[in-house]
Amino acid sequence: AQSVAQPEDQVNVAEGNPLTVKCTYSVSGNPYLFWYVQYPNRGLQFLLKYITGDNLVKGSYGFEAEFNKSQTSFHLKKPSALVSDSALYFCAVRDSGANNLFFGTGTRLTVIP
Amino acid sequence: NAGVTQTPKFRVLKTGQSMTLLCAQDMNHEYMYWYRQDPGMGLRLIHYSVGEGTTAKGEVPDGYNVSRLKKQNFLLGLESAAPSQTSVYFCASSYMQGASGYTFGSGTRLTVV
Q: How far is it, in rounded angstroms, from Cα A103 to Cα A90?
């Protein structure tokens, strides 16, 4: 079975400060991990993914995520937040043998000017 | 390149009415999915398809039916709409399982009164 936990429903950060959106996962095999962003009244957009290799993954809009196998985490980070980063962020996991992604419940990020 | 197109974008149904949501993709993707998004619950998989002529149940299939007669189209049907089916519905597609992420449509906002 696969599952994803996003422990924070809401994250607030001041513009220019670093941001972190947390994600932990559980799979029976090797995990494929993804981050998506959703802006109001839009579909989900792909940010980045971890499949294998370097634990630090870089993605769109200056975001990056660090895969930590021992802690089963895949936290999303950005060194300097922008107001335009305010959105709903979803972590997703796919077991290497599964047909579909399993999504977390989402974290709403608000960047305060 | 249109990607994934969902129609309609908005719909209001009366309890007991039926309707079909259409998803079309032009990326020659094998896999297609229907999710529903509800506040605080993230995205939950309704049905999916791993190729033309195939369908399978996801987490929350009750009250919905699907068909994949053509590779590029994935239809979601509500036979007898209920207020509990009020939600935002997203279609997604992917090239293959495993390392591929999803491309999402822009969603259909359905209200059942």
A: 7
